[in-house]
Amino acid sequence: MLSLLRYKYLQFLEHRRQVGFFAAVWITFYKVEEMVPTVKDLNDLRTIPVPENRAPSILDLGPENFFAYALDYPLRSRKARADYYFSRGYRTFVMAEGQRVVGDMWYVTPKTARSPVIHPHVQWFGLKLAEKDAYLFDLQVDAGQRGGGLTTSFHNRVLEILRDRGFRKAYGCYVANNLPALWMHRLIGYRELPRCIVRRFFQHEIVRPKA
Fold this sequence. Notes:
With 211 residues, the protein is an alpha+beta fold. It has one domain: Gcn5-related N-acetyltransferase (GNAT) (Aminopeptidase). It contains seven helices and nine strands, in the order ααββααββαβαβαβββ. Strands 1, 2, 3, 4, 5, 6, 7, 8 and 9 form a nine-stranded mixed β-sheet that branches. Strand 8 (196-201) and strand 9 form a beta hairpin. Helix 1 packs antiparallel against helix 2 and helix 6 crosses helix 7 (179-188). The model has no long low-confidence stretch (mean pLDDT 88).
């Protein structure tokens, strides 16, 4: 619980710097979003090249090796959430150039999860994950690095790694009004599933299907 509160506090401070105090309070304690769950058959991936002059490393990290890397995260909350996420059986793919983290994404599988529901989103959307399926979430690319296709190539490379390990499907989601996320999912070839409306009151969430 303390690790959750710590990363939420750091996230609030980051929102405050970006959008101001009152907007940060609103974002932190109450939010209504239309969520679009998605699924991708990993046997049907196409190659998306990394932008020119970029050669980031992709690291698959869990509690056994995450803290051995002296990684520099532009946002402190991205690193601070590790303890909480690891306690739930989640793992992270990190895109790094040297020691600097350019982007990161979290994922969970039925095998790594420490809860029968695997992840709250899996329960929200009524997903049925098989042993060789993965749920991907919480993608972040440094604001100064966005554009030029880096986010899409990172996401697609993660899917290629999972495919090469024998995974068959990847599930995820995005917020309906997030146009960059919409186009990224469509470029990769995700199939959209029925949408949900999610109301968040800090950590309490109410979910209903979109009418």
